[in-house]
Design goal:
mainly beta; 5-stranded mixed sheet; 3-stranded antiparallel sheet; binds zinc ion
Amino acid sequence: MIEGSCCCGVVKFTLNAPPSMMGTCHCTRCRKLGANVMVFIRRDSLTWRQGRDNIALYEPETPYKYTRCFCKTCGTSLGEILSNEDSFPISAQTLDTDLDIRNRFHEFVSEKPSWYEICDTAEQFEGHPEMS
Ligand SMILES: [Zn+2]
Ligand SMILES: [Zn+2]
């Protein structure tokens, strides 16, 4: 069982299956939201323990399309944890259980600030992987 939570502990959930993949987004939006490192989870692996009603949504303005979720109390970036898709990314930082998973790619490397050095050998993409 994999446990996840926000900083203040109001939001708590578990995953009954490990994430399928980990990736890092260097776009300006993910950077400001503090959601660079994501893991992709299946919706049916997610069980809410508490705090689902304590999540605020940031609905994107066009052309952006991903609704971002935050703890209303402490502001922890939760990724797209309320998505209705079968699979979606959540912030890896929310996971309390350490995982045997490593970063698989870097996307939007073109927007990466120079002070952030990529120190792994994962594949790098200028934008979205499928567009590169
Ligand atoms: Zn919180
Ligand atoms: Zn991004």
